[in-house]
Amino acid sequence: MHAVILAGGQGVRLRPYTTALPKPLVPIGDRYTILEIILNQLAARGFRSVTLAINHLGELIRAFAGDGSRWGMTIEYLTEDAPLSTVGPLFGLRDRLPERFLVMNGDVLTDLDYGDLLHSHELSGAALTVATAERPLKIDFGVLTVDGPRLIAFTEKPTYHYQVSMGVYAMSRAVLHGYPAGLPFGFDQLLLDLLAREEYPQTYAFKGFWVDVGRPEDYDRVNRDFAELAPILLPSPDGAAV
Predict the structure, then answer these.
(1) SS in 3 state form for 135-168?
(2) Which of the pair, 147 or 183, is modelled with greater confidence?
(3) 95 lies in which domain range?
């Protein structure tokens, strides 16, 4: 039960909040940080070891999380000398990772059961399992269907529904083979490589709470609603930290 948390981004979209703090350490509910909530959740689901991939203001993350003992787990660090995107940090860890493990962005708040995701991945036999959530996209215009010069259908301001990646994955170590350490590489590139080889990833559909705390409006909304969100985001029934 090992997790890799990608915490090396510069948090550009969340400025000015991330001017002095890395995004995983921005405060939530005046009492917690994003990273603290994630580590509490992982510990409650049975994870006992975590790798934190750090870069931007990484020493603040190291000082905050320490060796992980306050969560009953072991935390080790991978410091990126240069930005490696979302999969690149894993290539240098390949020989130290278990056969199957969790990978997640360090700015995700959700009540997803991380342990069940990893178990589902193990049962599937896939190289990669992507946690997905449904998101609506409303089009603020009338949408036309055309055939050459002819307009053959019209829909007024439709709403389309898409399955999107939550930024949480279960992965098998074998999927990292063949890529050199130090290569900047994103999950989009990995997915396209797998699809090109017809090694189709599995999906894990999730219908609970999920937010990527990447924009100021999302961050403000989470803080504004945290009293209601605490019981589902924090492991203990009374909403207190473990």
Answers:
(1) EEEECCCEEEEEECCEEEEEEECCEEEEEEEEEE
(2) 147
(3) 2-133+163-233
